[in-house]
Structures are given as structure tokens and as C-alpha cells.
Amino acid sequence: MKIFNTLSKSKQEFVPLEENKVKMYVCGPTVYNFIHIGNARPMIVFDTVRRYFEYKGYDVNFVSNFTDVDDKIIKKAIEEGVTSDEVSKRFIAECKKDMEGMNIKPATKHPLATEEIDGMVEMIKTLIDQGFAYEKNGTVYYRTRKFEEYGKLSHKNLDDLRSGERSLLVTGEDEKEDALDFVLWKPKKEGEPFWVSPWSEGRPGWHIECSVMSKKYLGEQIDIHAGGEDLVFPHHENEIAQSEAANGKEFSRYWMHNAFLNIDNHKMSKSLGNFRTVREISEQYDLQVLRFFMLSAHYRSPLNFSADLMEASKSGLERIVNAADNLKFLMGNAKSDCMTEAEKELFAKTEEFVQGFERAMEDDFNTADAVAAVFELVKYTNTNTNQESSKEYLQMLLERLVKLTDVLGLIVNKEEDILDEEIEKLIEERQAARKAKDFKRADAIRDELLEKGIILKDTREGVQWKRA
Ligand code: AMP
Ligand code: ZN
Q1: Residue 135 dihedral angles phi and psi, to the nearest 5°
Q2: CB of 29 shorter than 6 A to ligand 1
Q3: What one-character DSSP code corresponds to residue 195?
Q4: 42 lines ligand 1 (CB under 6 A)
Q5: Is residue 278 a contact partner of residue 98, using CB atoms and an 8 Å limit?
Q6: Atom of ligand 1 nearest to the CA of 39
Q7: Taking the chain (468 residues) in consecutive chunks of 10 residues, what is each chunk's mean pLDDT?
Q8: What pLDDT is stored for residue 158 in this prediction?
Q9: Burial environment of residue 182 by CB neighbours within 10 A (0 to 12, 13 to 18, 19 or more)
Q10: DSSP β-bridge partners for residue 112
Q11: Residue 460 pLDDT
């Protein structure tokens, strides 16, 4: 399996630290609002990476944090007159709802920055003891010049960066030793949440949070660290500087970064007002369509969000779901159970599509080509099944389709919560209860059905029902 590693700027064969295990950390969102569709891209992409490793039999320890202390959260809390804890808890819950809608598996662990402050204070102390950090007036800075490999991830010319940011140092207005030094701990301002530390009552810088949470839940060395490409510098560069200095060993073997999602060919940003939340999209589309849309491009290519592309994704997904529905329909009416010799041969030919799918995924998770392989399987299934097909053959084709689409997190074989016959039975029972004037029971049945997405309508011709 090949992964494009930002560290080496090349595709490298994946070799896990421990056989059959993957330790993976994905930087999560800052929770002060509903997540937008840009935030959804790394979530969907790296959930798919995880699913593919699991498909290959790896045991994946997947950690993704929520940044729940930050200037933007504090600002929002002040605007609303509530605590920042209330703001972050609310949007963590909303984010989890969106993740469920996009069929993103919950992480093995979702640590919260505010619950890991002790570990951060410890790592900062270690960095100070080793000369990698220094304190000035209650603020602790990382000494970037001391870490010789600083810049190895972002491949930037550090001298250019330094000269670009030198003005404050020259005038003596900045207390930092070097323009690229960054904050590990900062003192509180009036009204801000704070924690006690040896340096000041304050809070950690953003970068130290991920170094500490990754270490606590995955260990000092991990296989994959991932996030959007905007995180390469300074966030991930700084995480490397902190973790490798404190732990004395290489932090992550592979660094993966997704390209950005644009909207109508423009950068998506709040100031441009072209910003769309996942929740807004869910009002118009099943979020499976958003997931399918994200996976229709390679994760390292910029992707443009547009109404046309969403419509195309909707029909693409429908083609796959229809093929699965068709197989189920034929299975329900199949006249024979066991595969014939001819069917065995036909089924063996689908191996080719599985191989195409795996080849695409092994090549740095090329989901665009993997989706194309699924379409080939769909086409083959549609043309090589009919009313004469055996149940076993249809079942095997369905299982094959579901196995591949499940790697992509696409649900094509939705189990109905309740079968038609059960609904009819409950409706009859409700009619009988009404006749016997047991309205409590009649209402309870209506509610039970509603909970399962079944809407009843009493008409002159009798009770009609539909799935919501
Ligand atoms: P943030 O809450 O800004 O820290 O972002 C959370 C994650 O979303 C990070 O991995 C970002 O790189 C990623 N991200 C933010 N905006 C976009 C975008 N427009 N396209 C792709 N990824 C994004
Ligand atoms: Zn991070």
C-alpha cells in the first residue's frame, strides 16, 4: 500500500510500526459553530482511510480531538452571554450528529483539549528543562532555533519566513527570541477560562494540545498523522518540533494532508459569505450524497463544490443503491436456491472489479478510481442477473457490492427498521383498539410507527401509510 507522505513529498510503501496495527491521529475541528463542508472533507477522507485499513485486516486505533478552548469559542461565549464550556459542548454534540449523518465512525477516542491540561503542563516543563522552551512574563515559547529539523515537514525556506516576521523583534516590541518561536502557554485575559501552571494562570497554545493527546492515547510514535493542508505549517511543523524534542524520537512515520474544498471555484470563507454548513446541506440532500461527492475526487486534488456536482453525485449514488435494490427484489422472487455452474463462472469474473478497487485504494487511496470500479461491478451486476438467477448467486453479488461500498462508507443495503407486514399488523391492531375505544393504545401504536419513520393518514377509504 502506498501513501503520499508530506515529509518526503513522495509516495511511500506503508510499513506499520507494529504488525497489523495502525495508530492514527487526525486533527479535529475547533467547536464554536456547526462544521462546514470544508471540515467534512478530512473527516470523510480519513474515515475512508481507516475503513480501508480495517478491510485489509488491520486493527486501527483512531484518535481525533476536539479543540474546545480557543479565542473563537471564547468570543462566541461572550456574544451569547454563556460559558465557553457551554458553547463547545453544544457544538461537539452537533458535530457528532453531522458525523453520524455522513456515516463517519466514531473515533476510538475523541479527546477534549480541556481535559488534558495536566499532560500539556508536563510536556511544557520537559521542553523547558531541555532548553527547547523559555518563559517570558508568564508566556512560554518554543525555541525553534534549537530544533535543528524545524521546517522538515513544510519544506519552507525558514530564513525567508524569519525576515518576513522580523519587524517586531527589531523594534524590541516582541519578547520572543526569534520570529518563528511560538506559544506553548499564555496567561489569561480578564474573563477567559484558565488553568493553574508554574508560569501563570492561563491556557495552552493550540499546537501543544495535539502533541499531548496523540502521545497519551497512541504513544510516543504513531503511524499516521493527518489533517487539511492548511495545517502543514505552522500547526504540524510545530507538533513535530514539540513531540520529537520532548520524546527524543520520530513522532509520526507518515503525514497525510487533504487538499481544500472550494465552492463555485472560490475559496470558501466566512468573509466571502459563500460558506455552507453540513447541516444546511442535510436539509437538501441525504448526507450520503455529500460523502459520495467528496470521494469522487482524489483527496490531494482540490475539489469544487457546486449544485451541478451534487446533483451528479446524487444520481451516481442512486445507480449503486438501485442495483442493490434490484438484487434484493430478484432474491425475494428467486425460483432456485443454489448457484449453477454458469453462475459460478459469472461470479468469478467479478473478482476483477474487486482487484481494480483494491489497486485504486492501494495507490494512495485513489477513491475516484475505486468508485469507478464499483460502477463497473454495478454495470456487470445489472446485465448479468435476471428472474432466472439463483438466490445464492444474487446474494453473493450483493455481499460483494456491500463489502466494497462499505469501505467508502456508503450505505447501499439499508436494513428497514420495520417490514411492511409488521406495519400492516400494527395498523390493524390500532383499528381494533379504536373500535374498542382504547384510544391510549391506538395513539401509542401511532407513536411507535412514527418513531420508525412510518406516517399514518386516516382517510375515508381507510388508513394509508408511507415511509418518511
Ligand atoms: P479547523 O476547525 O479550522 O481547525 O478545521 C478542522 C479541519 O478541517 C482541519 O483539518 C482543516 O484543515 C480542515 N479544513 C478547514 N477548511 C477546509 C476546506 N475548505 N477544505 C478542506 N479542509 C478544510
Ligand atoms: Zn492538531
Answers
A1: -110, 140
A2: yes
A3: B
A4: yes
A5: yes
A6: 8
A7: 98 98 97 95 98 98 96 94 96 98 98 97 98 98 96 90 72 84 96 95 97 98 97 97 98 98 85 87 97 98 95 98 96 95 98 98 98 98 98 98 98 78 88 93 90 83 80
A8: 85
A9: buried
A10: 66
A11: 80
CB distance 457 to 465 below 8 Å: yes
- Three-state secondary structure call for residue 414: coil
The residue type of 245 is: A
> How many whole angstroms separate alpha carbon 37 and alpha carbon 282?
11
Q: CA dist 120 to 124, 185, 205, 274, 434, Å?
A: 6, 9, 9, 37, 64
Spacing, Cα 19 to ligand 1 middle (Å):
31
Given this model, what pLDDT does residue 450 score? Answer: 86
User: What is the Cα–Cα distance from 355 to 345, expressed in whole angstroms?
Assistant: 17
- Report whether residue 397 contacts ligand 1, using a CB cutoff of 6 Å: no
**Alpha carbon of 420 to ligand 1 centroid (Å):** 43
Residue 202 Cβ contacting ligand 1 at under 6 Å: no
Pairing of strands 59-64, 21-26: parallel
Is beta strand 133-136 parallel, antiparallel or unpaired with respect to 266-267? unpaired
* Alpha carbon distance 139, 205 (integer Å): 10
Q: What pLDDT is stored for residue 466 in this prediction? A: 81
